[in-house]
User: What shape does this take?
Amino acid sequence: MPTYLTTIGLEIHLKLKTACKIFCRCQNEQNFDSPPNQHICPVCTWQPGALPLLNQECVDKAVLFWRLINADIQPFSSFDRKNYFYPDLPMGFQITQFYQPIIQWWTVNYRIKWFEEEKKAEIHEAHLENDTAKMIHENWQTLLDFDRAGTPLIEIVSEPTFSSAQEAVEYAKEIQRLVRRNDISDADMEKGQMRIDVNLSIRKNESDPLWIRTEMKNINTFNAMKRAIETEYLRQKEIIESWWEVQQETRRRDDMKWESFMMRSKADAVDYRYFPEPDMPILQLHLDEDQSDLFIPSSYIQKCKQEFGFSKEYINTLLNDKQLFDFFFEMVKKGFEPKNVAKWIAGPLMKSGISSEEFLREYSQLFISFLEEEKKWNLMDNQLKIVFDETLETKLSPAEIIKIKWFDVLAMDEDALKAIIQEVISDNPVQVEQYRTGKETLLAFFLGQVMRKSGWKVSPQVAQWLIKSTLVQNQ
Ligand SMILES: [Zn+2]
Assistant: This one.
């Protein structure tokens, strides 16, 4: 039992999915898989005299985010300089929004316990800012890739509003679904497109003021985030129980070692000397409140749960992938059973490693014919799985695969077939004994019996497979 209450706040940095960087026209590379320093100019490398020019697409993405979460957007917002020096920021300041961020004060609804319980997260603000260059540490050297410098970020700062790892993680997942589904950001944590800092403090009672908090950085997955919260809780608890005080500090998480290390303490805390950015005009927004083209994933969760009876796995798979989600609803419109469609998407398709783009480009027609064949034939689950997998593997039509496999001659359910097999086995004890002592050619004899008794209405492959397994099981 925990003896202290945990209070968590999150800062989520999202890399915006725009064509250009935030203050220049250099390409906003999403994956950083090309050689370094390809998309740079005097602005994003901050040469003397270069002036920033705000990219409207970044503002549009922020406005879209505001509409999604129904927050108070600020009719006026402005940019400020956050002054500090670090090798990845040679100009000595970052352009961010400190005094008048673009979005302020709202709550985000999210769900915990398998989407059962609704929660509200209080959010303080969201602001636009530029990312720094990427530092690559190699052979005792540090290299800088300026392709990342000046790429647009939106930072979403929550209040200390979460009381468990589960709440913090589910909220972060909801944000990820929102921005992914509406093309604001790809929000892939492992690619650094979504970076989360966790603030955590513990206290004895709800009525106590918040105790001193620590900040954890370098968290790359939701599982790592959960572990970071749990281990930091234990670390702080241990400090307090040994009569020490938790120090206000920033800690870097090393998930491989299940530990975090101090990066800087409050004593080294930088005074950022924020002041209004003189090269950036004040932003004045006129808002169009039409919400028709918005997609709010959480509003589909109830539908998927209640109307379709979906499991968490199905919901997660569909809500995480915009293209598969649209495809799924297309199938439902065509009259296919929702749960069945989701079963093939969330299971075998996901496991096949085929990306959703590739699937929609090359396999969607085959998938539809598969669903049609499935309706037509009363095939066993194992057979359907074989047809599905082979369709993906060979790109042959499911109807052809059914013919090749002789599945089309099956017109009987599995239990009836098993009963026939049992009957044949009981009627032929001598042959069964011979088979079990090594005379495997007798399999053909059993198969013939079973096929005859079933009126040739079963596929020999399936019958043979079932006879074999029954003979082994009954031994
Ligand atoms: Zn540039």
